[in-house]
Structures are given as C-alpha cells and as structure tokens.
Amino acid sequence: MKSLAAAGIVVMLAATAWVWQLELLSAARQWVASAALLAYAAMLAVYYQRLKWQLSHALAQSVDYLVAYATETGTARALAQKTCKRLEQCGFCAQIVELNQLAGCPIAKRGLLVVASTSGNGDAPRTGNSWLIENNSLQPWQGACFAVLALGDRNYSQFCGFGIAVASHLQQSGLLPLFDPVLVHQADPQSVDFWFRQLKHQHHRK
To answer: Which intervals hold domain Flavodoxin-like (predicted)?
Structure first.
C-alpha cells in the first residue's frame, strides 16, 4: 500500500521534471501540466489514507484480543506470544503489539491483554517507557475490558511496580478489569499458568 503511493509520487516528480525540460511547451502549458500532476499526487494521498482506514477498520472487526507487551529482556514478549497462541487454540483471533505502539492500534472486540515486565525497582522497560506520551491515547479504549500479567522480582520493594501502574492507569482511563493483575515472580510457571486459567475462565463466562 505504501509502495503504491510512493511509486505514484516518484512518477509524478519525474514527470514534472520532464515537463519543465520540454522547451517546446509554453510556460502556461508547463504550469497546467504541473498542476495536473500535483492534483494526481493529492488524489493518491487521499486514496492511501482511505485504504489505510479501511484496512484498520477491517482488522478491528476481526481481532478479538490485542495482546500488548512491555519487555526488557524478551520474557514478556515470549509470554505475550504464548498468550496469543493459547487464545488462537480457543478459537479467538489475537494480535500482538509492543506497548509503546498501543495508541496506533485498532480496538479489539473482546479486550486488551497486557504482559508487562518491571525493570529494576518499579521502572518501565524500554518497550513500555513511552506508551502514554500521546495525550488521550487510551480514550478510544474506554469501556473495553483488560487484564494485566505483571512480571517482576520479589527482591525489589516495588515488586511488579510497572505492571501494577499500567493496570491502575488503564482502569482510571475507563477500561474495565477482567480480574486483578496477576503478579509473577521471575516468570514462575505456576503463576503464569494461573494467568491462563483466569483467561479461560473468562471465556467460559462469556
């Protein structure tokens, strides 16, 4: 889609340069030809935006869960991928995304699931340190359901501090919690399994 628009613009610029090099054309005709090419470029831009919206809308209609991850070492991303796989095995369509990119994603039909690691003593990991920079980035999600799997280390006083903060901010922004944040010490398998059981329980309730 982007390549189509880019190719059209390149063709337009090349054609404009060619037109201006034709000495046989009068100045008036050169301006008319250039204006026509600029109009064509504008038409391509409008077409690209419309196609982008249509694809985004279609994706929003098909995605059941959006699974966002914030990770420093890759553990949260791996668990987010595993969560998507479990959801797909249950017949749901799930899409994975970095938490910092949440603002640009379509709203999922059944809700938002966040797998968030805490870096150090309550700090955000690098893939989750700017997710709230855009004002009102969560406004489209108001009324949607969410759940948080928070990863951390009990050796720190702010155990799972970032994940807890994410859950708190989501709820304050008008999202509805499916259940309390699941806190996991060093990717403990039993705690992770509890996360999957909680999700499965929600599926049965619906």
So the answer is: 65-200
Q: Given the structure tokens 């404009």, which residue do they identify?
A: 16
Torsion of CA 26, 28, 32, 33, to 10 degrees: 20
Overall domain count for the chain: 2
With beta carbons less than 8 A apart as the criterion, state whether 127 and 98 touch.
yes
Q: Are residues 20 and 111 in the same domain?
A: no
Does the pTM exceed 0.85? no
The CATH number covering residue 148 comes to 3.40.50.360
Q: Please indicate, yes or no, whether residues 13 and 107 belong to a single structural domain of this protein.
A: no
Cα 134 to Cα 101, 104, 110, 137, distances in angstroms: 11, 10, 24, 5
pLDDT in tens, 132-191: 865 467 888 999 999 999 999 999 999 999 999 999 999 999 999 999 999 999 999 999
Provide the residue range defining the domain that includes 20: 1-57
Q: Tell me which H or E stretch contains 89.
A: helix 75-89
Q: Which distant-in-sequence residues (6+ apart) come within 8 Å of 112 by Cβ? A: 65, 66, 68, 102, 141, 144, 145, 146, 147, 170, 175
159 DSSP β-pair partners: none
